Amino acid sequence: MKTAFITGASSGIGWAAAVALGRAGFRLVLAGRRRERLEELARELGAEVPTHLLTFDVRDRAAVEAAVASLPAEFADVDVLINNAGNAHGLAPIQQGDPADWDAMLDGNVKGLLYVSRAVLPAMTRRNSGHIINIGSIAGHETYANGNVYCASKAAVAALTKGMRLDLLPHHIRVAEVNPGAVETEFSEVRFKGDTQRAASVYQGYEALRAEDVADLLAFMVTRPPHVNIAEVLILPAAQGAATVIRKE
Ligand code: NDP
Ligand code: 8X3
Predict the structure, then answer these.
(1) What pLDDT is stored for residue 240 in this prediction?
(2) Ligand 1 centroid to 9 CA: how many Å?
(3) Which of 26, 108, 202, 248 has the fewest beta carbons closer than 10 A?
(4) Largest CA distance in the chain
(5) Is the CB of 243 under 6 A from ligand 2?
(6) Buried-state track 66-76, b at ≥16 Cβ within 10 A, e below 16
(7) What is the rounded distance in angstroms from the CA atom of residue 237 to the CA atom of residue 221?
(8) Given ligand 2 and candidates 87, 137, 234, 244, which is best to mutate, with the most ligand atoms within 8 Å of its CB?
(9) Which ligand is nearest to the CA of 179?
(10) Residue 247: how many other CB atoms lie within 10 Å
């Protein structure tokens, strides 16, 4: 049984990825800050999917290192790492941006991904085997008005994915990036700081992706034979043409 480590498993894409990879026969390390959500997910997965829960903030390097070091032997040899934890905080012109939001995005989406990868990688390089999927975004490839720092954080994920793929090539570690468009999750609730009406309006008038749509893709990618790396995927709702171009009914 292979082991998959999923960050941001307490919600949205990460949660759905856990369900899809559990069904595909993986043992799962599930990480997030909200312990009770991870426990609920483990219950939903049931006894047939072995799970180990890790509660930490990806921005806290010492906590990341301690959590990964604490993995029991049967979960320590991570085969698949899905760097999914992340969020947008705010949507404002740069001149009105809140530096606390900038810190949250750059520290979480960029440095958090680095901290988790750095902590997990020895288990892969030692075995010359592994598969890392970074969850980027259409926003990392197309900067839109007011998206400034979130877009920059995801552009960094795109650059890091390419850098990691090159550096880890000698170790037979596949590195890939999945770039979703609009997915209806808690993402907009977080971006708009709990304004549920504003968050809901993001997904009104068209059919957004469901987290399960992205999870299906992730399950497909991680079950390809070892010589195949689906290196970069843009996955959009059929109604989305570009980051801010959506056909609404
Ligand atoms: P959700 O808000 O539903 O989930 C975000 C997840 O990330 C949660 O499980 C949250 O867990 C975790 N997380 C956030 N910050 C931290 C942190 N500092 N430390 C640890 N865990 C953290 O959003 P999505 O599922 O939509 O987002 C998942 C990824 O997909 C993100 O990287 C996002 O940028 C990306 N994405 C989303 C799109 C969308 O339209 N929804 C489109 C393109 C990309 P907890 O709060 O428990 O810590
Ligand atoms: C999330 C999608 O378009 O809101 O990454 O930036 S978008």
Answers:
(1) 98
(2) 8
(3) 248
(4) 53
(5) yes
(6) ebbeebeeebb
(7) 19
(8) 137
(9) 1
(10) 11
Q: What's the residue count for the chain?
A: 249
Beta bridge partners of 133: 82, 176
* Mean predicted lDDT score pLDDT of the chain: 98
Please give the structure tokens belonging to residue 222: 């991680």
- Distance (Å) from CA 10 to ligand 1 centroid: 9
Residue located via tokens 């082991």:
3
Residue nearest to atom 3 of ligand 2 (CA): 243
pLDDT digits (tens, 9 = 90+) for 137-165: 999 999 999 999 999 999 999 999 999 99
Closest CA to 124 of 67, 64, 81: 81
CA of 225 to the centre of ligand 1 (A): 28
**Nearest ligand by distance to the CA of 139:** 2
Return d(Cα 211, Cα 19) in angstroms, integer.
11
8 A C-beta contact, residue 183 and residue 211: yes
Q: Are 128 and 74 in contact (CB under 8 A)?
A: no
**What does pTM read for this prediction?**
0.98
Which residue's CA lies nearest to atom 25 of ligand 1? Answer: 12
Catalytic residue from among 144, 150, 203, 206: 150
Domains of the chain (ranges, CATH numbers) = 3-246 (3.40.50.720)
Ligand number nearest to the C-alpha of 12: 1
CA atoms within 13 A on the CB side of 227: 0
Taking only the tens place, the pLDDT of each residue in 160-193 is 999 999 999 999 999 999 999 999 999 999 999 9
Residue 115 annotated as catalytic? no
